[in-house]
Specification:
The structure holds 3 protein chains of 3 kinds.
Chain A lengths: L1 E12 L2 E12 L3 E5 L6 H8 L7 E6 L2 E2 L5 H6 L2 E3 L12 H9 L6 H14 L15 H14 L4 E5 L7 H16 L3 E5 L3 H7 L2 E6 L2 E6 L1 H4 L3 H8 L9
Parallel strand pairs in A: 3-8, 3-9, 6-7, 7-8
Antiparallel strand pairs in A: 1-2, 1-4, 4-5, 9-10
Helix pairs in contact in A: 3-4, 3-5, 4-5
Chain B lengths: L2 H32 L6 H19 L7 H20 L7 H23 L4 E2 L8 E4 L2 E4 H23 L1 H11 L1 H6 L4 H23 L4 E2 L3 H16 L4 H21 L5 H15 L1 H4 L6
Antiparallel strand pairs in B: 1-4, 2-3
Chain C lengths: L1 H19 L3 H26 L8 H18 L3 H24 L5 H21 L9 E2 L15 H23 L2 H11 L1 H6 L4 H27 L1 E2 L1 H5 L1 H14 L6 H15 L1 H6 L3 H16 L3 H8 L9
Antiparallel strand pairs in C: 1-2
Classes of the chains: A alpha/beta, B mainly alpha, C mainly alpha.
Chain lengths: 243, 290, 319
């Protein structure tokens, strides 16, 4: 079953065609990796799908419902959540409170939100840090917090924007496990990632953006053989390439 | 209501608008360069008005001549204030910058209250009531002089910003603070210069208003709240916006005075403000920072 | 809990003050201190928690003061009811100004200026409208000791009224701080885009904060007008009043429960300390406020509460 259906989405910033007729779909329970060089339009795609940027053309459907042009909060309430590449925690709030803000998406009760937040913290392996102020976390843990907060909104689809870059190898492995756990819980996921080994291992399918165009979408095994992708992005020997 | 009344009110509005524009220019220059809204702008104007008043009453100096003294003094004062008070909070959250200039305004206004008392003072010069005929209307000479002076100073400032190195540096740092620093522009000094020039602008406006206006510790606020409206209308940080906005507000206030009596005319300005907010918010956010 | 015990003791002491101390002066000073803490907390809901700095809260103060006094003067309606009508009118005006400001995401300095402009509109209108007393304002007709009309023969009653109002408000804001709306307000203050991404509608949350803030400030204004039996356009709607309202929560710590109370206490003590001087020079206390404000911005950018917090006092508080 198709959960997200992106149809010929376009966006232009001044002279730059950031997205050009991008079509993409995400199936229920799928993890889709979104890769491409810097400036390929990955983050713009997320922004256009989640309502932060109004696309010039095209449409986005979530579970059959048109969500193009809705404001971000309305899209989140319909079950599509995102993280930001530049993490944006609420610095004055503690870790658990940050996650509670997400949990309030589905409940009015602070007690329920706190319980839900603690569950999410356990799932994302942040539970020991629940009482820390968010501004005191390391960058790696802040990325994890960003993920936890989005997860607490109880989305059906989660868009993760580079939650692994800048992490230590151990943290990357942990995050991969966390993302698998989230999928097990029934959430479909799109990840933007530069950490190739991680994204190849994690994703069911990979989509490649280049100059705002979708140049390939296939299984990881097919992608690494794809001529256009190799020319545009991966370069020759590709196993385990990291940026 | 005769055509003459309307015309003379229109002329008065334009003359007053020139003064508003000059006040707003100082405000918008400071905002453009360092992204700080200077709530103490009116207080600086008030200080200049007192200086002009005292120079006239004690030394017999004509208010327009005393600009030669008050303008350099205002520049130096603004420069020093920026260094001492504004520079330390330039990287602080926006609301702390607002509070800083608000604190400065509180301090200066009430310092004036303590030193000069609340009594309004009026300076009468020989030409206070002199009028100049222009077509069917007669223009009040001090107002006309103030208008001319405001235009002259605005023009000089425009030339200065366009043609001199320092002017270019000012514009560069108003476009990109950190970029300007990277290009080797001494940003700290440029900021202080901008504040000095902004202060000199409002001081000029204050000095030139003395022959036809009263002086009191809160007189600056009357002008500066209007100037806020002007810069927001014209787009914060926009030079032409301040000029056009100033004239527009002057005319609206003056014509409003024909319809509403007394200070109710001011409501016209605020109504204009709200109207822009409603129908043309993009203009309002003209210099919206990313 | 020792903490609870400490608060109860403090509360009992506050309640005992008028029984022990006879000095009208001391009672009056404390009454004003509570009053400033009350309206400061009103501002704090919008300016502190939701992070929308208003430079025009005199707008709501004046509406509360005028509505309660006018209802009494023109309709004979007791200010006990009139103060709630004032709060309702303030909420209405707050929703309109809030809608205009927040619809297009007006924030920071723009919002501060727009609020200032709205307060000025009301000040000028009140000055020119004879029905509401024009520039002279309104003298509330005195009826002797008439508790039902919010008038008391003994100023100590006012002390208890404002103490009760402050207590109720502190309790309510403590609840708000731990509620969904409270967290959503803080989230918007801290990072509006992130809050939006988490399903929070910034426009609606800001409007809610505006409505609550307006209502509280208006109730404070109504108290003020009945306490002094007088209100005029400058006292009610003037920029100086807007500054008075925001000064205490800023000094004490915006966005914290105790900030407005602490700020009111500190400025109250300062006022007492410099009373001799201030009496001989009009304006001196505001001059001092200016210096304090500038000093606070540099040395206590997050108020006294912020400074205490970074010293580790109450560090676990938000866990």
């Amino acid at each position: 079953m198709t959960l997200i259906e992106v149809r010929s989405l376009s966006k232009r910033f001044g002279g730059l065609q950031a997205l050009s007729e991008v079509s993409l779909s995400l199936a229920q329970g799928e993890i889709l990796g979104l890769i491409g060089p810097n400036g390929a339009g990955k983050t713009t795609l997320f922004a256009a799908v989640t309502g932060f940027v109004r696309p010039d053309g095209g449409s986005v459907r979530l579970d059959g419902q048109e969500i193009t042009g809705l404001p971000p909060h309305a899209i989140c309430r319909r079950g599509l959540a995102r993280t930001f590449q530049l993490v944006q925690p609420f610095p004055e709030l503690s870790v658990v409170e940050n996650v509670m803000v997400g949990a309030f998406n589905r409940t009015r009760s602070a007690a329920v939100a706190r319980r839900r937040a603690l569950e999410v913290l356990a799932l994302t392996r942040l539970a020991p840090l629940a009482g820390r102020p968010a501004h005191a976390l390391s960058i790696g843990l802040r990325k994890r917090l960003e993920l936890a907060r989005a997860l607490a909104t109880e989305p059906r689809v989660l868009l993760l924007d580079e939650v692994m870059s800048g992490l230590t190898p151990t943290e990357v492995d942990e995050t991969v496990e966390v993302i698998r756990g989230i999928r097990e819980a029934g959430v479909s996921i799109i990840v933007i990632e530069h950490v190739m080994a991680a994204v190849m291992g994690l994703s069911d399918r990979i989509a490649v953006l280049h100059h705002g165009e979708l140049i390939a979408a296939a299984t990881p095994a097919e992608i690494v053989q794809d001529r256009r992708v190799i020319d545009a992005y991966l370069g020759e020997p590709l196993a385990g390439k990291r940026e | 209501m005769t055509a003459e009344v309307v015309l003379s009110s229109l002329a008065n509005g334009i003359m007053l608008g020139g003064l508003y524009a000059l006040v707003a220019l100082g405000l918008t220059l400071i905002f453009g360069v360092m992204k700080v809204i200077n709530f103490a702008h009116g207080s600086l104007m008030m200080l200049a008005m007192y200086a002009t008043f005292w120079l006239a009453t004690t030394a017999g100096l004509d208010p327009y001549l005393s600009l030669l003294l008050t303008l350099p003094a205002a520049f130096a004062f603004g420069y020093a204030i920026q260094r001492a008070v504004i520079a330390p909070v330039l990287r602080a959250p926006e609301h702390n910058q607002l509070l800083m200039t608000l604190g400065l305004a509180l301090f200066l206004d009430n310092l004036a209250l303590v030193v000069f008392t609340a009594d309004p003072r009026t300076l009468l010069v020989a030409y206070s009531q002199t009028t100049v005929p222009l077509g069917p209307v007669r223009l009040n000479l001090p107002r006309l002089l103030a208008f001319g002076g405001a235009l002259l100073i605005s023009g000089l400032l425009w030339l200065f910003l366009k043609t001199t190195d320092l002017g270019r540096a000012l514009r560069a740092s108003s476009e990109e603070r950190d970029g300007a620093a990277l290009c080797g522009i001494p940003v700290g000094r440029v900021h202080a210069m901008a504040f000095g020039i902004g202060t000199a602008c409002v001081a000029a406006a204050g000095g030139m208003a003395v022959p036809f206006f009263y002086v009191s510790p809160e007189v600056g606020n009357t002008f500066v709240i209007t100037a806020f409206v002007v810069v927001v209308l014209g787009g914060l940080g926009s030079f032409p916006g301040a000029l056009v906005g100033g004239l527009l507000v002057g005319v609206v206030e003056s014509l409003g005075g024909l319809i509403f009596h007394g200070s109710l005319a001011q409501i016209g300005i605020f109504a204009l403000f709200v109207a822009v907010l409603l129908v043309r918010p993009a203009g309002l956010l003209g210099a919206r920072h990313a | 809990m020792p903490r609870t015990a400490a608060w109860l003791a403090l509360l009992a002491a506050a309640a005992m003050v008028p029984l022990v101390i006879r000095s009208e002066y001391v009672i009056g000073t404390l009454t004003l201190m509570y009053f400033f803490a009350f309206v400061g907390q009103g501002w704090n809901i919008l300016g502190g928690y939701a992070g929308q700095f208003s430079f025009g809260h005199a707008l709501f103060f004046g509406i509360g003061a005028y509505t309660s006094s006018l209802c009494f003067l023109k309709l004979g309606l007791t200010p006990w009811v009139g103060m709630w009508l004032g709060a309702a009118v303030a909420v209405g005006v707050g929703l309109v100004t809030g809608h205009l400001s927040f619809r297009y995401g007006l924030r920071g300095a723009y919002f501060a200026l727009v609020m200032l402009a709205f307060a000025e509109i009301f000040r000028v209108a009140a000055t020119n409208w004879d029905f509401v007393g024009g520039s002279f304002g309104i003298l509330v007709p005195l009826q002797g000791h008439a508790p039902r009309l919010f008038q008391f023969g003994d100023k100590r009653y006012f002390y208890y009224v404002i103490l009760a109002m402050l207590l109720a408000l502190t309790w309510a804001v403590a609840r708000l701080e731990r509620s969904r709306l409270g967290y959503q307000m803080i989230a918007i203050r801290e990072n509006e885009a992130a809050a939006d991404a988490l399903g929070i509608n910034p426009y609606r949350v800001k409007l809610a904060a505006m409505a609550l803030s307006a209502a509280v400030t208006a109730l404070g204004g109504a108290f003020y007008a009945q306490y002094f039996s007088y209100i005029d356009p400058a006292i009610g709607f003037g920029p100086a009043n807007s500054i008075e309202i925001l000064l205490r929560p800023i000094i004490g710590g915006a966005g914290t429960l105790w900030g407005p109370l602490l700020g009111a206490l500190l400025l109250g003590l300062l006022g007492e300390g410099t009373r001799g001087l201030v009496k001989s020079y009009a304006g001196l206390h505001l001059m001092l406020y200016g210096v304090i404000l500038m000093g606070a911005v540099v040395f206590l950018p997050r108020g006294v509460m912020g400074a205490l917090r970074s010293l580790g006092v109450g560090a676990a508080e938000r866990a």
